[in-house]
Amino acid sequence: MMRFRDITLQSQCQQKKYIKIGYKTELQFITLAMILQGDIMDKSMVQICLAGIFGCTIYFLYSYMGILPAVVFIVIYILLLKKDFKKPLAFIVMGFSVLFFINCIIYFYSMNLGENIKCRIVEEGKDYYIGSLQNRRIKICPKNKEIQLGRQYILKGEFHRKVDYSKGIVGEYNLIASKPLKEDLIYKGYLIKSHLYNKLLTVTDEEGAAIILAVSGGDDSYIDYDKREEFNALGISHIISVSGLHVSLIYVVLQSIIGYKLALIVLFFYVIFTGGKSSTFRAFIMILLLVLGPKVKKTYEGISALAFAAFLLLLIKPYYILDIGYVLSFLAVLGIFTLNNKIKRKFYKLPNFIATSLSLTFSSMIFTTPYIIMRFNAVSLGGLISNLFLIPFYTFLLVLGNLLLLFIKVPTVFNLLSLITNSVLLIINTMEDFLVNLLPLPLEFTYIEGVMILILYLSYILIRRGVKSLRYLPILLFLLTIKQQYIIYPEINFIGGKKADIVEINYGTRKVMVCNQKVKLKYVYENYKGLDRIYDEFEEELTLKLSKHCSIDVEDKDGVFALQINHRGKISNIIIDKEYEKEATQCCYKSNSSSTSPNCDIIRINRKREGIILGHYYENYKLIGGELYHNYVH
Q1: Where is the ComEC/Rec2-related protein domain (predicted)?
Q2: Which of 109, 205, 280, 465 is the most buried (most CB within 10 A)?
Q3: Domain finish residue from 75, 109, 143
């Protein structure tokens, strides 16, 4: 029997999603570079930082897309900024851009490894490790059960240059043998976190132990998929990892107890202990500048300290421009510095703690939303309420988690703290369960819609700076959005499956999926936003009426999966033949409903499994005037 399944927004949000980075990254890391335009451009440190971001952006544009997009971006950049720079400063800014461009080349292509290397294991994948050496990252495979996360090893093997820009990986190392080195301070930090997790399991459940370790120790590897999805739906994913907010809170507590000098030293080791993420190093560098600046009679205000931190981290690790945590951290803080006070004044009638929380959330969201939409194709509006109610409790949990770590060898104190911690976890879980059912589901967007929102942001900034010619751009973007939502000519896209292929059909405002077996959306990596219905597990024949002008007959007989498309009276056929040979170019195939057009052309698709990437498009067609054309949009 044929089954019909309605696809709602809720069911889509519950499915696991995979984000393709690929060629779409260029606009994502341009976001940070271009959003810095506005009232802060008169600060020299900001201009130098922007020059560094610009240099890295050009390098990755060239690496991903070639010379032409890079040149186009250079021209746009110069046209937008030429009135902001006087000649001496313009040469300095361009000099820093060239410096960062060269720095990217040096980072990815200057390393040549021999048979034996000294390397620390910093990450673990399904069948590989990520190692760190000479401030670079390499992929190590195959996995060896004897290798421990966080430890240094002498590795013997063969190095191949296989660059992964988004992860900062400069190559792949085929492992032959390994020899562990003496335990050092960093490795002992990994052991302490593992010991803390096992100790927490004696006083709470697995979920509670995982959350405490993530909030206080920066290790979120124990948090399961369902809990991560809940955090995403609530818009509080930033809470479950040690971030700049956590580092700032830790410093305030330490400074009040042991003074600023010892607090900075302890804070540095805490940043290393929690994994040394870009967001935590950003916070540490800013705290260092803002605290020590006045001591040496050099005052840094927030924006300049933020720009210096961004500049320094990007100089050390240029691939950070592609790192989600790096970009979101700086955009959020930039939004807080530039907009928080203005927004807070709008909430003057509210109690101070509510006004502060709302203004912080709004100001950070304004800058991060375009990037989140382009990177994740969704944004949670419920995060405003979730952050208001949950952040105070997670802040308390952060303090408790670090106290548990401090008193892990004192059973009486540890057990007392664990009782308080479990009470806080109970309150948090109760509130999260309530909010998940109460708050609206995340809004879903396409990548293009994210780009349009970003362009609106930039247009607003430029209009405020006097570029009046852009005032009609929002109307043009509105018309483009309307056009994007309506497919004029039928599109037929084929998605590779493990045992059967999925056919995605788009026409007008409708999007459906067809398959002769059950469709599991968690294995579909393409964006299926706006999907109306899935037709799967049908018996031999199926007729789809997409509109009064377009209908599709689907047949699955004798190993042949066939589509016959009738668009405005013109008929075309597509056949997926499991036994199809490469030399066959056409075949005489005709379904029961095609007798009105016996001489129509037929497109046959080679369905050899080794040639298909599972979960992704492998054939795309557009039907125009009764003829099928390859569609290269995807």
Answers
A1: 218-461
A2: 280
A3: 109
